[in-house]
Amino acid sequence: SSKWEINRDELEIFEMLGAGCFGTVHKGTWKGRVVAVKMTKENTMSEESFIEEARTMTQLSHDNLVQLYGVVTKTKPLIIVTEFMPYGSLLTYLKRHRARILSKVATLTDMCLQVCSAMVYLEQRGFIHRDLAARNCLVGENQVIKVADFGLARYVLDNEYISSQGAKFPVKWAPPEVLSYTRFSTKSDVWAYGVLMWEIFSGGQMPYDNMRNADVVDYVCHLNKRLEKPNASPEKLYSLMIECWHKDPDPRPSFKEIHKKLSGLLEVGNYPSIS
Ligand SMILES: Cn1cc(-c2ccnc(-n3ncc4cc(C(C)(C)C)cc(F)c4c3=O)c2CO)cc(Nc2ccncn2)c1=O
């Protein structure tokens, strides 16, 4: 069988970690390794197309990407086995530790850099995430941040999530060209990354507060307005966010360029707290 096919009886399944959009996710073990196990629910995912792509996705490997180990396809339900991240989603982590981390600009910048490193890796491979946000990043030991569920948006069957008018479509993380023509690209990931930077420097606040999706479309696409600078964000970092939110995709920086600028900001002198 294919290398990324996992034998169902090699898996042990323990407590539930949460409910994702494809069903429940549990903690488990596989070959002596602690893993996360997605037990997919019927009719939530286009399974055949995902199984075809699984081969490619298991070959994506980076310190800041949640590793896909393999899939159980010989039995139902389809099971997706990935690396386990002990501290859950970055969004939950930001909200829980808000007070402490908002005072540490170097920590916030480092979190942005870790996500950026994963996105440079995906950019180089022409792999588009399609739903980059703090809720889709996970936290491990020593504040390691890893990007999760990259590319899986292509396999969601729920129309509420697929349609840009749907209640579950990530409007607040989408650029104009995605809202108008659902044209996804690395440059639409860059826009989402700008919003993710805003989430990090806002300690997990909801972008555009409690504005409704339709109002955000108007605010961003017609009034050409943008999220305001989070208090914890230095001016130079906010300028980087603004560059990610250029209304046209091409002038937005590449993840490579963003990484270069962010690393420069982390050098001593910008943040005296690093000594
Ligand atoms: C790997 N992993 C996944 C999860 C976990 C749990 C529940 N739902 C999810 N989610 N969350 C979001 C999600 C989103 C998608 C899009 C297609 C991009 C829309 C597709 C998914 F398949 C998921 C999913 O499965 C995850 C994310 O895949 C939690 C972990 N860890 C912990 C630790 C402590 N407490 C809670 N979770 C962990 O290590």
Write a structural description:
Helix content is 37%, strand content 15%. It has helices at 47-58, 90-96, 98-102, 105-124, 159-162, 176-181, 186-201, 213-222, 235-244, 255-266, and strands at residues 11-20, 23-30, 33-40, 68-72, 79-83, 137-139, 145-147. The strands form two sheets. A five-stranded antiparallel beta sheet has the order 1-2-3-5-4, covered by helices on one side. Strands 6-7 form a two-stranded antiparallel ribbon. With 275 residues, it is α+β, with helices and mostly antiparallel strands. A hairpin with a 2-residue loop joins β1 and β2 (23-30). α4 (105-124) packs antiparallel against α7, α4 packs antiparallel against α10 and α7 (186-201) packs antiparallel against α9 (235-244). It is built from ten helices and seven strands. The structure holds the ligand Cn1cc(-c2ccnc(-n3ncc4cc(C(C)(C)C)cc(F)c4c3=O)c2CO)cc(Nc2ccncn2)c1=O. The ligand Cn1cc(-c2ccnc(-n3ncc4cc(C(C)(C)C)cc(F)c4c3=O)c2CO)cc(Nc2ccncn2)c1=O binds at residues 17-18, 20-22, 25, 36, 38, 66, 82, 84-86, 88, 131, 136, 138, 148-149, 152-153, 156.
